[in-house]
């Protein structure tokens, strides 16, 4: 089976590719390598595969000929990055995703697995666990773009074209294209570099969490499932027991990093994004069970930070912060305001 992974050089994609290859799948990537300077450790971790170096906004039907399934990861991938330019987020995350699905259907691609998000639930009205039938209430451009994408792609589901929507819990864990702008990775980096588990909110908001490698396992689970079982279906992806308040995550981090203490940043107010999520549907319908816990993920990150090395300068610099890196490349004239390459980087 030939799989196209969009965003294969990103945080999730660089973990996904080796796992798919280990399963004996024929993998093709599509990416513009926007975060080429974000490799944590040896660049050799980014495995070479056949790839299409093209912006997801520019994909044509001919690019998708011979592809059996698409795992669509490529997006402006979190709330701060989405807020950088809400219109651009809508263009890349929504319009380009629907056009990609339309091209896939025309090219005869049978499976289209879309990386959506539990952030679609946004500001929940209560602390009740949310199932896939709960009302969506996104509070960010990123969340709104994911909701719109689900709606637009769902309309294409007919015949042999089977889209499936995976609403992932918030990711964490080691990746060759590490991110520090997601809660577990961020708190671990604060603790490791400063011995302070620094929270920027009051820590009361709930978050469901999932390890980055378990995200790939979910894609594989959908791929192996009968088409009728996953056709135009939405699945929350995570584990119901892995819902935490940010304060609970901070305590796990404190226990992992010797000599660290929980601290609050200046103006640490309530976070509007607050949701607990139920994951029984994917567990019962597809027999999917994540292998990782946040406690184990903290230990993995602590080992990686020790082994590869990370300083406060690394953590606070542009290398692993998506928004800061994009702005730096725009200032240098490498990227334009539409996130297209303006000129090659200086050698």
List keywords for this structure.
single chain; 347 residues; alpha/beta; Rossmann fold; seven-stranded parallel beta sheet; three-stranded mixed beta sheet; 14 strands; globular
Largest sheet: 7 strands, parallel
Tell me the number of helical segments per DSSP (H or I, 4 or more residues long).
12
Number of domains: 1
Fraction of residues in H or I helices: 25-40%
Number of strands: 14
Rounded mean pLDDT score: 92
**Radius of gyration, taken over Cα atoms and rounded to an integer in Å:** 19 Å
CATH architecture assignment: 3-Layer(aba) Sandwich
Strand order in the sheet with the most strands: 3-2-1-4-5-7-11
Structural class: alpha/beta
Percent of residues in β-strands: 15-25%
What is the CATH topology?
A: Rossmann fold
Oligomeric nature of the chains:
single chain
General form = globular
What gap, in angstroms, lies between the N and C termini? 38 Å
The first-level CATH class is given as Alpha Beta
CATH superfamily: NAD(P)-binding Rossmann-like Domain
